[in-house]
Design goal:
heterodimer, A: about 350 residues, mainly alpha, two-stranded antiparallel sheet, 2 strands, B: about 160 residues, alpha+beta, Alpha-Beta Plaits, three-stranded antiparallel beta sheet, 5 helices, elongated
Chain lengths: ~350, ~160
């Protein structure tokens, strides 16, 4: 690996990091605006034109708030919790292919930070680490509500990770690779002469299971039981204030962004778009592909918010029922169907 | 036991069928309803910039009227204060001096006229009692303030602006 390549990678890392932070920032604004529009309201519109400076105002507020660490809390873990939550949320975006190869002068480089051959497993590992942030924060607070929230988060994530992993297995059977770069490349274009090339058309049930599990993994409504206000005050972040609380809330939005990107890559063709073969300039295809990928990601983020303001929260036993008795058998059935169909088509 | 009122209603609770148990059709329906609202016009009135129109018979802040020549109509008869159920109105009468004919229509006028807006219930009996058509509750609503004494409105706030301005 030459120096130029290392510099390019570092620049790419910084860009992706900055983009995910900015998108997470504006997701908070988008959430409030979309909530307002869905409820026939106006939403934040005072800070700047149409309120677009609202995230900055929110951030400034978070930084200026008094920082409270409860006397009986474990100080080290109390601080480690939100740090871990936001760190694991951020590093997930490393393996996502943001575009094809871009050529500037004599350099050609991938718009993917690391095309490791176990990309999906890496994502799963990082996502399951995310629950530690919540667990540690909830436990270190020394508060029963926080602890209950943390326990809920842990059990919910563990149960839904199984169904998520099983739904991915069916996808891996058709793609034959774990690398996200290869999976994105396989879904080239939109119509490959015989059938739709995007994985969602060959794995509709798998996508549905993955989508439901993604809602649960990111602790979004209707599965936001860890921070269920009606029962648990604030859930795992009851005792948190200031920017430490901000980190938790921020981590949720980064998680949402990353899981949207994963869903777009795995099932909705990633950077591929219809009629991409008609454009001959490779750089233009790459740039358009990145634009399309972000379009898909934004649609998913919008869907996350749309669902949040539509569906009420599940009861805890319903959540567990859905995870263990519905989604896991469905995912296994999906694997079997996929295997049988693949056998007959071959 | 037999119902006497005949209002008894048997509650049926059928077990959910497969589609209902699958959640998804209901969720899709709910999403359809919310997305319809997404494109609706917001019902919000952004208050300081935009104001809701008062109804025609809205009774707001009082104003003491002037006649067509710009003279104050009020003659300090005290009927408004008498009619006021909340005892919000007080006044001190004075006699019109020579050279003040362009200011006051009658020989007697209110030197001090005060309405306590915290007491006033905006019933409109003062405007009904007034024989000179001098007081009307045709203003906007009374603005908020910090101190009780600031809610006692004198003539400086109540009397209409002079005509020639």
């Amino acid at each position: 690996m030459g120096t130029a390549e290392i510099i390019i990678k570092i620049v790419l890392v910084v860009i992706v990091f900055a983009i995910s932070l900015v998108i997470a920032m504006y997701s908070t604004y988008a959430e409030r605006k979309i909530a307002a529009f869905l409820q026939d309201r106006v939403g934040p519109n005072r800070a700047g034109p149409w309120g677009i400076l609202q995230p900055l105002a929110d951030g400034g507020k978070m930084f200026l708030k008094e920082e409270i660490i409860p006397t009986n809390a474990n100080t080290f873990l109390f601080i480690a919790g939100p740090s871990l939550a936001i760190m694991t949320a951020c590093i997930g975006s490393a393996v996502i292919p943001w575009g094809q190869k871009l050529t500037i002068g004599s350099y050609t480089f991938d718009l993917q930070i690391a095309d490791i051959n176990v990309g999906i497993l890496y994502i799963f590992g990082v996502v399951s680490l995310g629950v530690y942030g919540i667990m540690i924060g909830g436990w270190a607070s020394n508060n029963k509500y926080s602890l209950l929230g943390a326990i809920r988060a842990a059990s919910q994530n563990i149960s839904y990770e199984i169904a998520m992993g099983l739904s991915i297995i069916a996808l891996l059977m058709t793609t034959g690779t774990l690398s996200l770069g290869h999976i994105a490349a396989q879904q080239h274009g939109f119509w490959n002469g015989h059938y739709f090339s995007w994985n969602v058309f060959s794995q509709p049930l798998g996508f549905l299971i993955f989508l439901v599990c993604a809602f649960a993994e990111t602790n979004r409504s209707p599965f936001d039981l860890p921070e269920c206000e009606t029962e648990l005050v604030g859930g795992y972040h009851t005792e948190y204030s200031s920017m430490k609380l901000g980190f938790y809330l921020f981590a949720e939005y980064i998680n949402m962004f990353v899981s949207s990107a994963v869903m777009a890559t795995l099932y909705f063709g990633g950077y591929n778009f219809p009629f991409m073969d008609l454009i001959h300039s490779q750089n233009l295809v790459t740039i358009l592909g990145t634009v399309f990928l972000f379009g898909k990601v934004f649609l998913f983020i919008f869907f996350f918010m749309w669902v949040r303001w539509t569906i009420p929260r599940f009861r805890y036993d319903q959540l567990m029922d859905l995870g263990w008795k519905v989604l896991i058998p469905l995912a296994i059935a999906n694997i079997i169907i996929t295997g049988v169909v693949m056998q007959f088509i071959k | 036991m037999e119902s006497l009122s005949n209002k008894k209603k048997l509650v049926e609770s059928k077990p959910l069928n497969f589609l209902e148990r699958a959640y998804l059709p209901a969720i899709a329906k709910g999403l359809g309803i919310t997305i319809k609202h997404f494109f609706k016009k917001p019902v919000t009135i952004s208050y300081p910039e935009e104001k809701r129109e008062y109804s025609e018979n809205f009774r707001g802040m009082h104003s003491l009227k002037r006649d067509e020549n710009g003279k104050e109509r009020c003659t300090a008869c005290g009927l408004c204060a008498l009619s006021c159920p909340a005892e919000a109105i007080t006044m001190i009468a004075a006699e019109r001096q020579k050279g003040e004919e362009h200011l006051y229509r009658e020989e007697k006028y209110a030197a001090v006229y005060e309405i306590n807006m915290l007491r006033c219930i905006f019933c409109g009996l003062c405007e009904e009692a007034c024989p000179k058509e001098a007081i009307y509750l045709d203003g906007p609503h009374v603005p908020s303030d910090y101190l009780r004494k600031d809610f006692i409105y004198g003539k400086d706030k109540l009397v209409e602006a002079p005509l020639n301005q």
